[in-house]
């Protein structure tokens, strides 16, 4: 059988896993919405960002939605590894890539559902982007790229971790990163040190790209930096995942 | 039929500077059961991992189903089925879905799934998640999943460790059925009884080397049979008893004597009468059937590090 059909079988399996695990659905889909409600209703009025806070925060929260889905992916890859299921697939005549691709694609799909739900709630809260159809396509593209890159990195983290618990912990930095970016408040309002970190970490250019697209004023430089970060993360994640997968028995 | 299913020569494997397999040679004829017997840490699982292409060997050649594991891993994988030491079933899927997953990956139809559920007596729980299964059921499901592709060579790594006696017997019956169908079985075990019950040939693995190889009868000739164990309170008593029971072997450390016996009442009475005659009394008296530890003591001169239960 071909890699594609093996990947489809694996994807179907991973989607079943996610659907049967209410905690992971909650974390991936509801948590970003809860955080959105928290920031927009509780704290939004306290931040002066020059525009409606919901318009400012939505792009960053979209990235947060991607990150919140990763914990589940790390845990499920790791439990496959530690419970011997991956070894079962390895000694079958199953394409090596399919197992990992299945996890990455399932993670990307969860992210898309979470983003769709989040954007739906944002519109209900008065989100009014100025983006054209093409801009929206750009947003979708960059988010897919991020979801794909972060998915590979998470799969690698999950494979390398000793237990499902540590795998869950390993994805925490990815969940925290958006908070230390321009997602919630502009980087130039942060204290020294943190401000520089926020300006140069990968999430800021990605968020600024999405923000620009949604405003209808896309910024080419941000986009190039964002795409470069995503490509780099994807490559590192992919290579790391492949080598861990081959080595660990 | 006398074709060779598995041929291993000079197999070596080390983790860093710790040698785990130190030159293993063995041959398994097609359609037979081969048991690799050894205590925990002897290298049994490593051997299975190497033979099933999960790990790369550091030296030696291995042919499985006529294919070299180093250069034709894909062909080897297509020919074998592996059930590892811990049931590799998907807990979130039901029994039926687990089997379905194997069918989707390897080909076959709905009939294969139904037949296997029937054969392994899993029909009733087929639609419950595997996480609710007992240890014995998980092993059965695991083995059923292994059988989906109808492999002709099956590796079973400690298939009954941790199972209750009833599940163990069920597992043995399944292995016998497979052999009757002409399947070759390579199993590892730490139970002498299991190897004795199932295997045509047994190899004893100790610290990465094979210390004995042959049929169960060959091995039994080399190890002490059933014997009576007498434990004494003092060395003086032990000495006195050893002089009286001349065919006994001494274990000075435990202040014990082992006296060959068939375990029957006549021979037991004879031993006791002899002690009585010299007014000797043992502190403890037990009838002992040989276990893995005896095999090791006989073949290697040392006990297993982790005593077999």
From TrEMBL, chain A:
Stored PROSITE patterns: ABC_TM2
Keyword Membrane belongs to the record: yes
UniProt-listed InterPro entries: ABC2_TM (IPR013525), ABC2_TM_bact-type (IPR047817), ABC_2_transport (IPR000412), Nod_factor_ABC_transporter (IPR051784)
Keywords annotated in UniProt: Antibiotic resistance, Cell membrane, Membrane, Transmembrane, Transmembrane helix, Transport
Primary residence: membrane
Compartments, as annotated in UniProt: Cell membrane; Membrane
Domain ABC transmembrane type-2: 23-248
Entry membrane topology: Multi-pass membrane protein
Gene Ontology, cellular component aspect: ATP-binding cassette (ABC) transporter complex
Keyword Cell division: no
TM helices/strands, residue ranges: 21-44, 56-77, 98-124, 136-160, 167-187, 223-241
GO molecular function: ABC-type transporter activity
GO biological process: response to antibiotic
A Pfam family it matches: ABC2_membrane
Annotated family: Belongs to the ABC-2 integral membrane protein family.
UniProt name for this protein: Transport permease protein
Organism ancestry: Bacteria, Bacillati, Actinomycetota, Actinomycetes, Pseudonocardiales
TrEMBL record, chain B:
Keywords per UniProt: Antibiotic resistance, ATP-binding, Cell membrane, Membrane, Nucleotide-binding, Translocase, Transport
GO CC entries: plasma membrane
PROSITE patterns: ABC_TRANSPORTER_1 (PS00211), ABC_TRANSPORTER_2 (PS50893)
Membrane topology type: Peripheral membrane protein
A Pfam family: ABC_tran
Superkingdom in the source lineage: Bacteria
Keyword Transport annotated: yes
Molecular function as annotated in GO: ATP binding; ATP hydrolysis activity
GO BP annotations listed: daunorubicin transport; doxorubicin transport; response to antibiotic
Location(s) in or outside the cell: Cell membrane
Span of domain ABC transporter: 6-232
Family that this chain belongs to: Belongs to the ABC transporter superfamily. Drug exporter-1 (DrugE1) (TC 3.A.1.105) family.
Entry-linked NCBIfam families: drrA
Name by which UniProt lists this protein: ABC-2 type transport system ATP-binding protein
């Amino acid at each position: 059988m071909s890699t594609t059909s093996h990947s489809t079988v694996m994807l179907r399996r991973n989607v079943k896993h996610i659907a049967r695990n209410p905690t992971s659905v909650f974390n991936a889909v509801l948590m970003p919405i809860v955080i959105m409600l928290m920031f927009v209703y509780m704290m939004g009025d306290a931040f002066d960002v020059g525009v409606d806070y919901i318009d400012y925060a939505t792009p960053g929260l979209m990235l947060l939605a991607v990150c919140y889905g990763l914990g589940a992916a790390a845990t499920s890859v790791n439990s496959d590894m530690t419970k011997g299921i991956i070894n079962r697939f390895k000694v079958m005549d199953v394409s090596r890539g399919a197992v990992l691709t299945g996890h990455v694609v399932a993670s990307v799909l969860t992210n898309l559902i979470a983003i769709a739900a989040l954007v739906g709630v944002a519109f209900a809260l008065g989100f009014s982007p100025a983006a054209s159809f093409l801009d929206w396509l750009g947003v979708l593209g960059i988010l897919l790229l991020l979801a794909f890159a972060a998915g590979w990195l998470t799969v690698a983290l999950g494979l390398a971790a000793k237990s499902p618990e540590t795998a869950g912990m390993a994805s925490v930095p990815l969940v925290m990163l958006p908070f230390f970016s321009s997602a919630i408040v502009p980087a130039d309002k942060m204290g020294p040190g943190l401000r520089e970190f926020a300006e140069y970490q990968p999430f800021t250019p990605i968020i600024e790209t999405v923000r620009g697209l949604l405003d209808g004023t896309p910024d080419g430089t941000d986009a190039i930096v964002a795409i470069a970060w995503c490509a780099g993360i994807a490559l590192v994640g992919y290579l790391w995942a492949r080598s861990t997968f081959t080595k660990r028995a | 039929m006398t074709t060779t299913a598995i041929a291993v020569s000079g197999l070596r494997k080390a983790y860093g500077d710790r040698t785990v397999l130190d030159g293993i040679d063995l041959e398994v004829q097609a359609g037979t059961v081969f048991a690799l017997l050894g205590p925990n840490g002897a290298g049994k699982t490593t051997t299975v991992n190497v033979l099933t292409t999960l790990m790369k060997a550091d030296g030696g050649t291995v042919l499985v189903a006529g294919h070299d594991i180093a250069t034709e891993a894909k062909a080897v994988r297509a020919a074998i089925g592996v059930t590892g030491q811990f049931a590799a079933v998907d807990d979130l899927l039901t029994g039926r879905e687990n089997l379905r997953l194997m069918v989707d990956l390897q080909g076959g139809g709905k009939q294969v799934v139904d037949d296997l559920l029937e054969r392994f007596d899993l029909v009733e729980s087929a639609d419950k998640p595997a996480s609710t299964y007992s240890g014995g059921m998980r092993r059965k499901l695991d083995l059923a999943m292994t059988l989906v592709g109808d492999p002709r060579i099956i590796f079973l790594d400690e298939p009954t460790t941790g199972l209750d006696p009833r599940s163990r017997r069920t597992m043995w019956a399944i292995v016998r059925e497979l052999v009757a169908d002409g399947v070759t079985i390579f199993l590892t075990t730490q139970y002498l009884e299991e190897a004795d019950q199932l295997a045509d040939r047994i190899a004893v693995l100790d610290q990465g080397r094979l210390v004995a190889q042959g049929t169960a009868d060959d091995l039994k000739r080399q190890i002490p049979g059933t014997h009576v164990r007498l434990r004494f309170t003092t060395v003086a008593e032990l000495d006195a008893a050893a002089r009286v029971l001349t065919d006994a072997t001494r274990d000075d450390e435990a202040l014990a004597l082992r006296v060959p016996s068939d375990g029957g009442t006549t021979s037991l009475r004879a031993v006791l009468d002899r002690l009585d005659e010299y007014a000797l009394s043992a502190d403890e008296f037990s009838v002992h059937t040989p276990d893995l530890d005896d095999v090791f003591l006989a073949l290697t001169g040392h006990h297993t590090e982790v005593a077999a239960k």
